[in-house]
Amino acid sequence: MTAENKPRLEVCLSPALLHLFDVKNSIVVIIDVLRATSTICTALYNGAAKIIPVASVEECVSIGKQLNAITAGERDGKIAAGLEHGNSPFEYPREFIEDKVLVLTTTNGTKLLHMAKDAIQIITGSFPNLDAVCEYLVSQGQNVILGCAAWKDRVNMEDTLFAGAVVSRIKEHFDVNCDSAIAAENLYDSGKADLFEFIKKASHFQRLAKFGLEEDIRYCLTPNGANVLPILRNGELVVG
Amino acid sequence: MTAENKPRLEVCLSPALLHLFDVKNSIVVIIDVLRATSTICTALYNGAAKIIPVASVEECVSIGKQLNAITAGERDGKIAAGLEHGNSPFEYPREFIEDKVLVLTTTNGTKLLHMAKDAIQIITGSFPNLDAVCEYLVSQGQNVILGCAAWKDRVNMEDTLFAGAVVSRIKEHFDVNCDSAIAAENLYDSGKADLFEFIKKASHFQRLAKFGLEEDIRYCLTPNGANVLPILRNGELVVG
């Protein structure tokens, strides 16, 4: 197959660059490795009925009341005032989350998710569901945008690394004419032998490590611990 | 010296991200490796009196007439209608450019230059003047933003590589708490053994190679062939 016959695979390193991409004709993968999308697949893997991503703490509280759901979300690394739970995947074991509805707001991930609403399909990606994401993307044969949630629009290491991991696994099925994708893959190749060591250089590691979240980070960098595909249907993330 | 005492060194991968940086309190290095900033230092190295960067072809023509200067610029890789010369560094040997004024407009570089106008100082960087840029930045002791001109706001390989080359050389003098800088350095480290081979993967290489510009690209990836410091003074680039 020539490059021309293959769908495109591109990496958008920041929500502030998303307008440069043809969102409407692509599947968009929302990537917020530390920790929103890692937590989303973990909660669904552990049996959550669905996850409703919302932009604001107010919405989170109000929808949570309406549905008698669990409300969760952080602002600057701490549980936001008025919410019950945080962004740690370890807060959502099966005995707690099974069959429950989770309403979730995060600083960066939900913002990007709302920005990408015109996409063919929105899914979420993170190391714990790496294989599920890759298999889905290859099976669909559509253009793909790997959308890094970043940190307040700043390019970050962990989301770029995950985008690179995906590129590295599925690139032969796509036309990759995107320097960000090539750079992300290169970064992943440099770090993959020990992602935890590699990410210690990153700004967000230092931010989270202050809160004692090294175990969270280790989990969020380990492939396939919660290998389901969260897919957005009518504004709700469910297992695809 | 602790990190806190050192000035910041950051990399801005696209003009569309420049608003995230503290331009006003930084020296901004404009990077447009293929080929505007490579050509700028080459023309100055070869004795050009000054270079006036302008945003539009119309301005270029009008200022060119006014000053009886050489007008140059490209749009999408070809000399723009109404202008005399292109973006190739080989168009500006000493016997042609010495003591002349060059009015230059480019797709990406001049745009970023105008966006960064509030910076403490603006200089231009490229491989042909790599050492001059590094020495200047270290000598100033100010915060630095390495500003990639990118390609129509899309992150590109060649500008990121140059930013990485600078980070790699001067990082110990700065506080580098910027994931883009770490990623750029990593990319440069992967490619530095043979930048020309490395960049063949890049989208812009393919664009320029179509026009037969491989020799331009080789020159633009070679360090210190025109080692002067272009510095912006009153809207004009002169040797600093």
TrEMBL record, chains A, B:
<keyword id="KW-0378">Hydrolase</keyword>
<dbReference type="InterPro" id="IPR005238">
    <property type="entry name" value="ComB-like"/>
</dbReference>
<protein>
    <recommendedName>
        <fullName>Probable 2-phosphosulfolactate phosphatase</fullName>
        <ecNumber>3.1.3.71</ecNumber>
    </recommendedName>
</protein>
<comment type="similarity">
    <text>Belongs to the ComB family.</text>
</comment>
<dbReference type="GO" id="GO:0050532">
    <property type="term" value="F:2-phosphosulfolactate phosphatase activity"/>
</dbReference>
<dbReference type="Pfam" id="PF04029">
    <property type="entry name" value="2-ph_phosp"/>
</dbReference>
<keyword id="KW-0460">Magnesium</keyword>
<dbReference type="InterPro" id="IPR036702">
    <property type="entry name" value="ComB-like_sf"/>
</dbReference>
<dbReference type="GO" id="GO:0050545">
    <property type="term" value="F:sulfopyruvate decarboxylase activity"/>
</dbReference>
<dbReference type="GO" id="GO:0000287">
    <property type="term" value="F:magnesium ion binding"/>
</dbReference>
